[in-house]
Specification:
Largest sheet of chain A: none
Number of helices of chain A: 24
Catalytic activity (chains A, B): K(+)(in) + H(+)(out) = K(+)(out) + H(+)(in); Na(+)(in) + H(+)(out) = Na(+)(out) + H(+)(in)
Membrane topology (chains A, B): Multi-pass membrane protein
Number of strands of chain A: 0
Keywords (chains A, B): Ion transport, Membrane, Potassium, Potassium transport, Sodium, Sodium transport, Transmembrane, Transmembrane helix, Transport
Radius of gyration of chain A: 24 Å
Oligomer: homodimer
Helix content of chain A: over 70%
Protein name (chains A, B): Cation/H+ exchanger transmembrane domain-containing protein
InterPro entries (chains A, B): Cation/H_exchanger_CPA1, Cation/H_exchanger_TM, NaH_exchanger
Distance between the termini of chain A: 49 Å
Order of helices and strands of chain A: HHHHHHHHHHHHHHHHHHHHHHHH
Amino acid sequence: MAIDISSLFAKAGALLASDHTSVVSMNLFVALLCACIVIGHLLEENRWINESITALAIGLCTGIVILLTTGGKSSHLLVFSEELFFIYLLPPIIFNAGFQVKKKQFFHNFMTIVLFGAVGTLISFIIISLGAMQFFKKMNIGPLTIGDYLAIGAIFSATDSVCTLQVLNQDETPLLYSLVFGEGVVNDATSVVLFNAIQSFDLSHINSGIALQLVGNFLYLFISSTMLGVLAGLLSAYIIKKLYFGRHSTDREVALMILMAYFSYMLAELFYLSGILTVFFCGIVMSHYTWHNVTESSRVTTKHAFATLSFVAEIFIFLYVGMDALDIEKWRVVSDSLGKSVGVSAVLLGLILLGRAAFVFPLSFLSNLTKKSSYEKVDWKQQVTIWWAGLMRGAVSMALAYNQFTSSGGFTQLRENALMITSTITVVLFSTVAFGLMTKPLVRILLPSSKQLTRMISSEPSSPKSLILPFLNNETESETSQQGNTSIPRPTSLRMLLSAPSHTVHYYWRKFDNAFMRPVFGGRGFTPFVPGSPTERTEHQWQ
Amino acid sequence: MAIDISSLFAKAGALLASDHTSVVSMNLFVALLCACIVIGHLLEENRWINESITALAIGLCTGIVILLTTGGKSSHLLVFSEELFFIYLLPPIIFNAGFQVKKKQFFHNFMTIVLFGAVGTLISFIIISLGAMQFFKKMNIGPLTIGDYLAIGAIFSATDSVCTLQVLNQDETPLLYSLVFGEGVVNDATSVVLFNAIQSFDLSHINSGIALQLVGNFLYLFISSTMLGVLAGLLSAYIIKKLYFGRHSTDREVALMILMAYFSYMLAELFYLSGILTVFFCGIVMSHYTWHNVTESSRVTTKHAFATLSFVAEIFIFLYVGMDALDIEKWRVVSDSLGKSVGVSAVLLGLILLGRAAFVFPLSFLSNLTKKSSYEKVDWKQQVTIWWAGLMRGAVSMALAYNQFTSSGGFTQLRENALMITSTITVVLFSTVAFGLMTKPLVRILLPSSKQLTRMISSEPSSPKSLILPFLNNETESETSQQGNTSIPRPTSLRMLLSAPSHTVHYYWRKFDNAFMRPVFGGRGFTPFVPGSPTERTEHQWQ
């Protein structure tokens, strides 16, 4: 690669010669992305492989090729960049997840999700931090501070919500999907709070005051991030409803939705909130209100454009992690202590398994106590699946590890820091590949009821994501119940009757939604229809 | 702004503190983009303003605010970046233009377009270079080399195709649109060749050998760029047709189309070709073949997603140019010679007017000689409009000027270079605002036949771009003629009968297309339809 670059540089008459390094790497990257999509499509019906693993494998192969062609020199083109990840790649993935999530299912399990995401992450954090402290001191790794140990706890408590999305399917296992994915979103907020707290608070003497401060900080972060996302979503709905009524323009509507969503994320980052929580709730609100205020072609476009953006960003991340993993510079520093590096990775993987088990099973038990219906309880097979599906560590862990263990700017030469970086890479690769590979078969073995459905769906030759049509399913369902009886939602099943408490909340929310929210912000059934308006015309054009 | 940034930096406990400068500027930028879209929508029915001018004005206002809040300090957040422009903003705009262009109209006028774009740009380049040499020596500007003068010629011969797209309307004035826009695309290639040639060839002794080399270079660039774009488009069509048949996935299809288009652009940049020509022809081929191989929802999504990307990129560019214009550092160097700066800008504007007049009128006359039908001739009113609509200078000029007149990396302190940069900015702002403002009214006065149509269209409250549905119109039209008589295209009008030569080319092309191209690469009417395939199902879901 480097040979190519230098020969290209030597060429005379180059406009923009200074950009040519980035042009070469972008060419490589775009070509690899195309390859991932095509190969991922070909391997689709394979029951083990998913797109993340394909991308990781292609990334690793490319890394090897680069390593060989450059003769073992490091290639700085391919070093993992926190900024790229947090500012460009993560927002579309999380926004799309919020936009396409089954809202009913999500809010139905809201308490369990928060319990898993907040309390669970804290338990996992404590276990991993204490365990690392115990083991690493014995292994004589180097002078890690108490802050480093706590950071390790936070880094390895951050589950990979991107990978979870790929492994579980919203249509096959809706309950598990909403629990594991919802947990992942809250988990991210918790990890970021913990990580921030570790970097800013004086941790040498922890007392109850600081603990309270931490709890307050978390609550502030959670509530303000959510509110910001909801406000941004409502603002977009209001603007599009008021300004665009009767004179729709698909391009402007789509542009405004994308920009407002991105703005909410960046605003959250600006105020040191959790951008992930913000953009997730912004996505939910946009799919509930804004999406119903736009033209039919805007709806199709946004639905698929967001899914595509998210899809490309996911592949990008895994490709990136795969390529970065072989960056030789990091491995050179730890090459004399390879055994120690393997040991550290093994200990961390063990702690991750233990830390997750330590909260999934007790908290599921607690959650089951509050449910009356056996339909709603999380049985042990589902508990094992939840435990397993959340074991993967991904780009968030990588980004936090880089933040903690590299000195500002360049790569640190300190041996213990290099060791932690390489161990993080090992854990991320191993957990994504090994745990990821086994999740699909595990889900099929443990939850045979979903096996039939899986077969049925995989006989429809389409990607899992394009099959997820949450709005249509969701809206049709709620529309039926609404049309049946407008004042009191009709209990469509025994399950709905039995789940009285959350049903009540849902009933009052819908009442409020219909009386106040929808008339102001639009939403299904509340967008005035003008015969012969451009809306209608656009629809006809596509029929 | 700077106060905000520093206070934010001071905040403790910042995750990703190093990225915060970019977070702040991105917030500002995204907010301004939203504002531009909303304000542009509100001002839509105004007959003078267009979206570019709105964005320029908002950019200028923001620049003033930044200047005032920082107390006159330069803000390096907002310096124009060539890389950002050429790698991220320009490709989607040009690709979308190719994707949405009326192919029949474009190829019908192909020879005229190439004549205007290649020969015309050369004439304009010579006039501006010679004129600048004459005037600037008298004005005692500083030690500019012959290379600098020729670069000035190339810089100010590059018309702004982005702005042209906004001012002319494909449905109102199809002939003018295809002439002016097509010219703009070819013009870009010519300008880049000229600029490269100036930077690489030894210009002190120009002889016929070098001149021939330049011509050869241009032909090589034009043909290879076009071929690359066509090949990339055909490859995407082939991949999607072969791999995706019967198992469509909207997300993968859309992602593949976007990535392949971008890949073609980057590949062209890698081989020092004209990425703009490449991506333009890639867009044309994709809309002719690939677009017909995908699902109905992919079609809606790609059409609007590409238009939206292009729309946002356009606004971004004008906002950027507006904000960058007030960067104080550049102006400080020339502040003692403000009169000279105004003089230089005025001379350049005069030369632009003259240089364009010098080729539009003679070449139109030549072009008219080859046409038999009076329908096809470009009358003098249209000639004036073509002359006027191509006077705007934009981001390409800015990028080339920065490339020539700033030393690598930072801003040069040389007075004559600073003078050229500020003059370029002045010319770009003035031509975009003054000429841009007057184009719409001019078109209405000169071409009253389109006035009615304009009124009719502007009563339909939608952006010009979302109204352009070239495929539908175009395809329906050609379908009718095709269904009428499959072996010999039916002459639908007197005009078509008279335009025999280009008609013949079109006839043989269609025969070849139907016999060889479409069976291999797909395209309208050649995508096998399987009842009950996901394609059909997806369509029904959206109906």
